[in-house]
Amino acid sequence: MAFKNSAGAIKNAFSLDLRSIAILRISMGLLIFYDLAYRCLSFTEHYTNRGAIPHELFSRTNLISLHNLSDTAFIQATLFGLQMILAIALALGFKTRIVSVLSWILLVSLQNRSQMMWYPGDPILVIVLFWGCFLPWHMRFSIDSFNERRDENFQTAFGLGTVGYLIQILMIYFMAGLSKNGASWSEGTAVAYALSLKAFDSGRQEFLLRFPQLLTFLSQFTRVVELAVPPLLLIPFFKGFIRMTAVFSLIFLMISLNIFLDMNNLAYVSGGATLGLLPSSFWDILTPKRLSLFTKKSPTKSAGCFEYSFKHLPLSKAAALIGLILVSLNNVNNILFYGYFGKDARFLLRDLDSISIPLRLNQPWMLFHEPRTHPDGWVVVPGYLRSGKQVDFVTGSALSWDVPELVPKIYGNFRRRRYFSQIGFPDNSLERIMKRPGDDFRKSYLAYICRAWNANSVENDPLEKLEFVYMKAVSALRPALPPAPEKIILNTMSCKEMTQIGN
Question: Hey, what's the torsion of the CAs at 418, 420, 421, 423, to 10 degrees?
Answer without folding.
Answer: 120
